[in-house]
Write a structure and sequence with these properties.
This protein has helices at about 15-25, 40-50, 65-70, 90-100, 110-120, 130-145, 150-155, 160-170, 175-180, 185-200, 205-215, and strands spanning about 5-10, 30-35, 50-55, 80-85, 105, 125-130. The chain has about 220 residues and is an alpha/beta fold. The chain is globular, with a radius of gyration of 17 Å.
């Protein structure tokens, strides 16, 4: 079993210690270190090279969103960032994902949910809590005033089937669910997803979903 190495970034010592205990008890997960604020998180990420960073949003000095932006924008094999917050607010969801976060989870999640989130994000998948997903869709609808031309042109680089898969990713479907919807093998879907990310220069499914909404490829129902 491959061990997932985790860095915990939070300005509250009790939160860091609590997450360390919870994740330390999970098989296949190792807490590689802790960071006390955003600047420390950036430095520790470069030093420890964890697989996943649990990133608090509200921290003194450099906040979690900017720290995420710096870490994911460093290039190379950068860590996946799972943003944790007690504030279930639209602007945080939107900005964290645009900054490069691969997942978003509220701090009241159970130990099992937290461990599952770490594993999902480490595997390269996206993770959003159901409540946050609803707010994310509403936020995309609010800020999007029609597709931005340069981004929309990039959709033209995709085949018809790849565009269809991208749309389903943005609607929250897993590879298995997409395979059932399109009546193809799950491995075929994985191949399409890989090509989509490569062609569009995206890191993961979360960025693909963001891209789909920003280009207007997908519009939230009811908006």
């Amino acid at each position: 079993m491959t061990t997932v190495r985790v860095l915990i970034a939070d300005d509250q010592v009790m939160v860091r210690q609590g997450f360390t205990v919870l994740l330390g008890a999970e098989p296949g997960i190792e807490v590689a270190g802790q960071a006390v604020d955003g600047l420390d998180a950036v430095a520790r990420a470069a030093e420890l090279r964890p697989d996943v960073i649990l990133m608090d949003i509200r921290m003194p000095g450099l906040d979690g969103i900017e720290a995420t932006r710096r870490i994911t924008g460093a290039g190379g094999d950068v860590p996946r960032v799972l943003v944790l917050t007690t504030f279930d607010l639209d602007e945080y969801v939107y900005e964290a994902l645009r900054a490069g976060a691969s997942g978003f989870l509220l701090k009241d999640a159970s130990a099992a949910e937290l461990a599952h989130a770490v594993r999902v994000v480490a595997a390269g998948d996206a993770l959003l809590s159901p409540n946050v997903t609803k707010r994310l869709i509403a936020e995309f609808s609010r800020v999007s005033r029609g597709p931005r031309a340069p981004l929309r042109e990039r959709v033209g680089e995709l085949t018809e089937r790849e565009t269809e898969v991208l749309s389903l990713i943005a609607q929250g479907l897993s590879n298995a669910e997409i395979a059932v919807r399109l009546v193809v093998a799950e491995q075929t879907v994985k191949t399409h997803v890989g090509r989509i990310l490569l062609k569009l220069g995206l890191r993961d499914r979360t960025q693909a979903a963001v891209f789909a909404y920003e280009t207007g490829l997908v519009r939230p129902a009811g908006y």
